[in-house]
Amino acid sequence: MLNWLRRPKHGRISRRDIPAGLWVKCSRCGAAVYHRDLERALKVCPKCGWHHRLGAEERLSITLDEHSFEEMDANLASGDPLRFDGYREKLSEARANTGNADAAIVGVGGIEGYRTAVGALDFAFMGGSMGSVVGEKITRVAERALQDRLPLVIFSASGGARMQEGALSLMQLAKTSAAVGRLHEAHLPYLSVMCDPTTGGVTASFAFQGDVIIAEPGALIGFAGRRVIEQTIRRKLPERFQTAEFCLEHGLIDMVVPRPELRGVLARLLRFFGAPRAVAPEPAAAAPDGEAQPAPGEPGGPEVACP
Ligand SMILES: [Zn+2]
Description:
By secondary structure, this protein is α/β, with parallel strands linked by helices. It folds into 2 domains: 38 residues, no CATH class; 234 residues, 2-enoyl-CoA Hydratase, Chain A, domain 1 (Alpha-Beta Complex). It is built from 11 helices and 10 strands. The longest helix is centred in the middle third of the chain and has 20 residues. It is globular. The protein starts with a helix and ends in a 21-residue tail after the last helix. The structure holds zinc ion. The site of zinc ion has 8 residues, from loops.
C-alpha cells in the first residue's frame, strides 16, 4: 500500500532519471520540460501555459530589438543608510546572484523599431523590492523619456517597498509617481507591464499609473497579501483573487497578454500612441508590417503624444 502511494504519477519523471540541467520541472503543473523547449517558449510551460518568472535582463532581451539597448546608471548602488542589520550581506548576495547592482535595469532601446525609454524590475534581486536605487532609476528613466520625448515602458515584478531602507523606500512611491505624472502632463505615453508578482509599494505607485496597464497571464497583482485582507474584512476571498485575470474582469487593468505576444502588442500600442520609429526595425519584425515610417527627426514625423 505504501509503495502504491509513493508511486510517481504518470507523465512525471523522477529526479534520478534525468541529467542535471537538461530538464526542468514546471513549478505549476510539475511536468518535466526540456530546458531548451522552455527557453524557446520564453519560459512559458508548454504543458500548462504557466509563465515562469524572468530576470530583468531576460525580460529586456526578449522584448527589445537586438543590440538596441543602451543601459543607464548601471552602477547606481544602494548604501546602507539605516545600518539595517544584515542588509549589506543581503545586497552583496543579490549582486553576486544576479550580476546587477540593484533590482532594476533601465535605459533606452527599440521595440520593433520604436525608440523607447524602458525599465525592468528583477524579482531575483531581493524580491524586486523598491529601495532608493530602484526609485531613483525609475525616476531617471522617466526623466530621460521626458527630455528626449520618448514613450516609457516599465516591466514590474516586485514584492513592494524595501523594508531595509524604511522611510527612504516609502519616499520612492511619491518620487516615481511624480516622475510618471510629468510624462502624462507632457502627453508622452507610459505603458506599464505587470509581471508575476507585482505587489505592495510598486502597485501603490508607478505600476498602476500607466496609460495602458498590461499584465502577464496568472501574474499575482495586489497591494496587501490575501491573508491580511481576509483577516481584516473577515471574509473568505475568491480563489482567483489577485490574479491578472481577476484584475482584468474587475476593471483594474486593461489587458492580459501572453508573453509570446507581448512585444508585438507593445509595438502596436506605441504605434497607436504615435511614437516615432527611430530605431531601424529588425528585418523579421518589420517584414509583415510593411508600413513606411518617417526616419528619426524627419520633418513631418509623428510626435509622441497621447490622443
Ligand atoms: Zn506547467
